[in-house]
Amino acid sequence: MSDRNPRNRAPQRRPDPVRRLAYQVIRQVNGDDGYANLALNKALRDQRLGGRDAAFATELVHGTLRWQGTYDAFLARSVSRPLADLDPELLDLLRLGTHQLLRMRVDSYAAVSEMVTLTRSAVGQSRSGLVNAVLRKISQRSLDQWITAVAPHPDEDLPGYLAIAKSHPRWVIDAFANALASDSNELEALLDADNEPPRVTLVARPGLAEVDELVAAGATRTRWSQYGAVLQGGGDPGRIAAVATGRAGVQDEGSQLVATALATAPLDGNDTKWLDLCAGPGGKSALLAALVNERDGKLTAVEPLKHRAELVRSNLRAVPGEHQVLVGDGTKPTWPAGWYDRVLADVPCSGLGALRRRPEARWRRTPADIKELRPLQESLLESAITSVRPGGVVAYVTCSPHPHETHEVVDAVLASRGDAVLEDARELFPGVPSLGAGPDVQLWPHVHGTDAMYLALIRRT
């Protein structure tokens, strides 16, 4: 059959493959509750995209998801019906086009034309007219002009203004403001840091690799972690031999710092039995296992989900020793009370401290999630304290700065028992500034360049 119709019009253009890939990943995230980093990495591998095409696809996906709330506010002014009445597939196409028009150096004519072509391919010819009209309307204003037109004035409603200007849900902004207890300038700096693409940070696992090996492969040393290096210019960390063989891994500097703090906390007596109570996917487990090897010890890693336990085993594959991975519920220990010398309780949390690397999380989480996670967090901390011997230490860790997930959990658990005390953890972060009033520690993206990791150090008495 001919590609031309009876009137001999030119055959329809095919959509740009990079934009099509980005749209398909966004649909996996928004339509199927996928994770942006996993879905994108798989798509790039499957399509064998690299270099500039991979970078373009990454910005399309992460940028569109990161700024989704802001774009929805603009689109609500540009579409003649409520956004809730639009098909999700069509709304994601509009978001993807808006991102190119307002935050990427894409010619407006090209951006609209490419999105109309993609619309025809993805959802049909009948929707292309709406996409064309709406995106042309979006292109008539700059990002700042749209913010001025849509957002409330900051003097009248600062959280409402920031929700649109910085693309965070209002409840998250309120929680961050509560945790910072500081001026609005610091709050804005944190929101800006959340909107910056994260660096690829590597960890050289002690006894297996040296940071110098990562530096020789093109990385630079991290500011605070003695085991860390930043991969310059992004790229695939798997091309580095130490990472490919498991002697090094990808791990945020904040995660390295809290694991190292647990390992270096003063301890009298035996120091050979360590426990990672909530181990998946296993990055901290691998660092702790390498560190306990230096003391001829053994790590036990516990993870309730079978597939995540396999990820822990994969992370531990290069670390020598008889380290053990258990599939089980950390709130129901199968080991004797007081069995371990050091325990890490890196509890499930909202993940609000890692919004830089999980752009979809800010729209997926709700205040109800914070409330629902609280009993589990308290139960895991109770179990961790019971599992450590007298004189031993527990690190309670979350990748969230939300007070309901951090010090309020610690305060509630310690108030219910008389056999544990909170110790000052700040001295375990040598050279790292601005750790908070203590005795616990809060890291911040806008201050430390890390995820917003929280650590409380608890000693069993």
TrEMBL record:
Keyword Transport: yes or no? no
Keyword terms of this UniProt record: Methyltransferase, RNA-binding, S-adenosyl-L-methionine, Transferase
- Please state the span of the N-terminal signal peptide per the UniProt entry: none
Domain named SAM-dependent MTase RsmB/NOP-type: residues: 176-461
Question: What GO molecular function terms would the record report?
Answer: RNA binding; RNA methyltransferase activity
Is-annotated flag, keyword Hydrolase? no
List the active-site residues.
Answer: C399 (nucleophile)
Which GO biological process annotations does it have?
regulation of DNA-templated transcription; RNA methylation
- What InterPro entries does its record include? MeTrfase_RsmB-F_NOP2_cat, MeTrfase_RsmB-F_NOP2_dom, NusB-like_sf, NusB_RsmB_TIM44, RCMT, SAM-dependent_MTases_sf
Where, by residue number, does S-adenosyl-L-methionine bind?
A: C278, A279, G280, P281, G282, G283, K284, E303, D329, D346
Query: According to its UniProt record, which protein family does this protein belong to?
Result: Belongs to the class I-like SAM-binding methyltransferase superfamily. RsmB/NOP family.
Q: What does this protein do?
A: May act as RNA methyltransferase.
What is the name of this protein?
16S rRNA (Cytosine967-C5)-methyltransferase
